[in-house]
Give the backbone structure.
Amino acid sequence: MTEDKDGTIWLATLGGLLKITDRGKGKFKKYEHIDSDSNSIISNQLHSVFKDSIGNIWVGGENGFSLLNKKTGKFTNYHIPKLTENPSQPNFVKDFLEGYNGELWILSQKGFLHFQPSTKKLTHYIHNPDDQNSLSDNNVLDILIDQTGELWVVTWNNGINKINPYTNSFR
């Protein structure tokens, strides 16, 4: 849940995105996924909503995330990769973190992603059992950018990872 500068509350639910505009009267608008509309939200099964430093509303759900154009009510959708080990299982976006340069770090249950909004470049970080410098586990619980700019990643099964943003290597 987040609140924008206009006092609007945004709530991610398993039935779509709620925009609460008048708390006193209970006025709200619901955004739902419509299969025939590529400008509708990415999914109705939403797990996170995030307001970035310039006021954009990002929503994370099943198999990707969406950016809302508040003026038109339309969404730009970004699909995230599925893992080859079980491609029929969805990959849920669980949370967002904004970096110092406006980039987004995106938690998922199958690794995490780095997204550059200006270039639309999406990089997916996952565990590779053959690479000791890869992420230690794909189920990411939390991330933090410290004062030096290094990214700390907490995983479900294999502890804490630290990524050097200049080399993209994990410790």
